[in-house]
């Protein structure tokens, strides 16, 4: 049972209310594909991912970035039930998509970096810690249905 | 419903192009990576004090398991004297590593011995500090810390971590 402090709850709600899902989603997901190119293995149908410029201008990458952010919003809207919220998504990632769960935190790290650059000084160490905790809970929930 | 991606023409095309890239060994730094790192570091090292201090402070706050290595400090809070001092130490070492980018293993030998025999830091933590450094860089230099710079810096810090791990066993 995850216990959230008031600060953590407010911080997570606040971050997600401030960011543009299309912008942050595209930036984080394209960074993940660029910085950790082996993650491209799951996106063979996305077209040209050959270099950073191609990834940055790829419309399927942008669209999928937004999908990811919208999925994260589900967790933000019900922070006390993240495991249940992601039960189906976890099974999907495990059984159909067959994503190595170690990849989840690679995307998480890229998202942290993008959110940090958006919020600037407001992304203090305490805010960063709350965000990291949120990501850890999300990743843990996504790992639940793997066997 | 889900096609085998390995058989799609686009996957094959990307794979073929990737194979054409010159092989340099396990994720080692290309000439372009080194140029990118040197240029970016020259730009940012003027703020080394702030960067190092914030990165260490963040590491201690966001990844509290790292505090276990600093139980001898009187004050682990952000902005405290030991945190600032250690931030400066780390940044000086990274700057030194940039100058030795063509032979990190050789150049960081004594630092590796220090971490392996005296400090005995679990090498998994090197990744943690690296990540926090990158977060600080993206906050302080949002325009310059492009995806291209990000991947070069991530590779470089991973190479530094590998060189630091050299003497462990």
UniProtKB/TrEMBL annotation, chain A:
Keywords, alphabetical: Heme, Iron, Metal-binding, Oxygen transport, Transport
Molecular function via GO: haptoglobin binding; heme binding; metal ion binding; organic acid binding; oxygen binding; oxygen carrier activity; peroxidase activity
Globin domain segment(s): 3-147
- GO biological process, alphabetically ordered: hydrogen peroxide catabolic process
- Lineage top rank: taxon: Eukaryota
Q: Which Pfam families match?
A: Globin
Q: By its UniProt entry, which PROSITE patterns does this protein fall under?
A: GLOBIN (PS01033)
| UniProt-listed InterPro entries | Globin, Globin-like_sf, Globin/Proto, Hemoglobin_b, Hemoglobin_oxygen_transport
Q: Cellular component per GO?
A: blood microparticle; haptoglobin-hemoglobin complex; hemoglobin complex
Query: Which family does this protein fall into?
Result: Belongs to the globin family.
Q: What is this protein called?
A: Hemoglobin subunit beta
Tell me which species this is from: Oreochromis niloticus (Nile tilapia)
**Protein encoded by which gene:** LOC109201894
Automatic annotation (TrEMBL), chain B:
- Name it: Hemoglobin embryonic subunit alpha-like
Q: Which organism is it from?
A: Oreochromis niloticus
Q: Name one GO biological process term.
A: hydrogen peroxide catabolic process
UniProt keyword Ribonucleoprotein, yes or no: no
> A Gene Ontology MF term for this entry?
peroxidase activity
Database matches in Gene3D superfamilies: Globins (1.10.490.10)
Q: Which UniProt keywords apply?
A: Heme, Iron, Metal-binding, Oxygen transport, Transport
Its family? Answer: Belongs to the globin family.
The residue ranges of the Globin domain are: 28-169
Q: Pfam families, from UniProt? A: Globin (PF00042)
Quote the InterPro entries the UniProt record gives: Globin (IPR000971), Globin-like_sf (IPR009050), Globin/Proto (IPR012292), Hemoglobin_a-typ (IPR002338), Hemoglobin_oxygen_transport (IPR050056)
Give a Gene Ontology cellular component term annotated to this protein.
haptoglobin-hemoglobin complex
The record's CDD domains line, in alphabetical order, gives: Hb-alpha-like (cd08927)
């Amino acid at each position: 049972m995850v216990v959230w402090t008031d600060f953590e709850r407010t911080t997570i709600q606040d971050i997600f209310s401030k960011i543009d899902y299309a912008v942050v989603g595209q930036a984080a997901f394209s960074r993940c594909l660029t910085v950790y190119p082996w993650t491209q293995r799951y996106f063979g149908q996305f077209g040209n991912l050959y270099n950073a410029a191609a990834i940055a201008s790829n419309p399927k990458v942008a669209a999928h970035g937004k999908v990811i952010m919208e999925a994260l919003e589900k967790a933000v809207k019900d922070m006390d039930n993240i495991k249940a919220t992601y039960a189906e998504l976890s099974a999907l990632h495990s059984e159909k998509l067959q994503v190595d769960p170690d990849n989840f935190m690679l995307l998480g790290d890229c998202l942290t970096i993008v959110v940090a650059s958006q919020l600037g000084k407001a992304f203090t160490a305490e805010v960063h810690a709350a965000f990291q905790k949120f990501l850890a809970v999300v990743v843990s929930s996504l790992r639940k249905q793997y066997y | 419903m889900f096609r085998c991606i390995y058989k799609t023409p686009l996957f094959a095309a990307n794979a073929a192009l990737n194979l054409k890239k010159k092989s340099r060994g396990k994720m080692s730094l290309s000439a372009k990576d080194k140029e990118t790192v040197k240029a970016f570091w020259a730009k940012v090292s003027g703020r080394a004090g702030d960067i190092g201090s914030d990165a260490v402070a963040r590491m201690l706050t966001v990844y509290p398991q790292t505090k276990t290595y600093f139980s001898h400090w009187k004050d682990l809070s952000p902005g405290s004297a030991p945190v600032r001092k250690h931030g400066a130490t780390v940044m000086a070492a990274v700057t030194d590593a940039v100058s030795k980018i063509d032979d990190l293993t050789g150049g960081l030998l004594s630092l590796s011995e220090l971490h392996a025999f005296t400090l005995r830091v679990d090498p998994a933590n090197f990744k943690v500090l690296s990540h926090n450094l990158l977060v600080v860089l993206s906050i302080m230099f949002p325009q310059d810390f492009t995806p291209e710079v990000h991947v070069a810096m991530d590779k470089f810090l991973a190479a530094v971590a590998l060189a630091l791990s050299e003497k462990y066993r």
